[in-house]
Write a structure and sequence with these properties.
InterPro entries: QdtA_cupin_dom, RmlC-like_jellyroll, RmlC_Cupin_sf
CATH architecture: Sandwich
Radius of gyration: 15 Å
CATH topology: Jelly Rolls
Pfam family, one: FdtA
Largest sheet: 5 strands, antiparallel
Protein name: Sugar 3,4-ketoisomerase QdtA cupin domain-containing protein
Length: 134
């Protein structure tokens, strides 16, 4: 379906938990970009696009939110609320993020540098590309 959950390692002791990730080891690509979404209004929607080549892993570092995915054939819905669990989203997967809790922080690891030409921002154009790729 183009989206899978990834559990990261944790080291726990009385001082708290430490979670780490390494590209090509815990994340299935070399990490070229990291960005955060925060101060998102609880009724806001983010995403609303797909990528031609880029892959991502999305984490809820704090709070929670929903990620809806669509690969052109199958739709999925994932609630992220554990900072140790990320959602790997492959290329050619439409994603929408909503239902942000108050104070939610979303971190995204990306396989490529930002390139506007890599985006499908039209759902109908995405569906045509997804159909061609099948």
């Amino acid at each position: 379906m183009g989206a899978t959950l990834i559990d990261l390692p944790v080291i726990s002791d009385p001082r708290g938990d430490l979670t780490f990730m390494e590209g090509m080891r815990h994340v299935p690509f070399s990490i070229k970009r990291v960005y955060f979404l925060y101060n998102v209004p609880v009724d806001a929607e983010r995403g609303g696009h797909a990528h031609k080549q880029l892959e991502q892993v999305v984490f809820a570092l704090s709070g929670s939110f929903r990620v809806k995915t669509d690969d052109g054939r199958t739709q999925g819905e994932y609630w992220l609320r554990n900072p140790r669990r990320g959602l790997h989203i492959s290329r050619l997967v439409w994603r929408e993020i909503d239902s942000f809790s108050q104070g939610a922080v979303c971190m995204v690891l990306a396989s490529e540098y930002y390139d506007e030409a890599d985006y499908y921002r039209s759902y109908s154009e995405f569906l045509k590309a997804a159909e061609r790729a099948q």
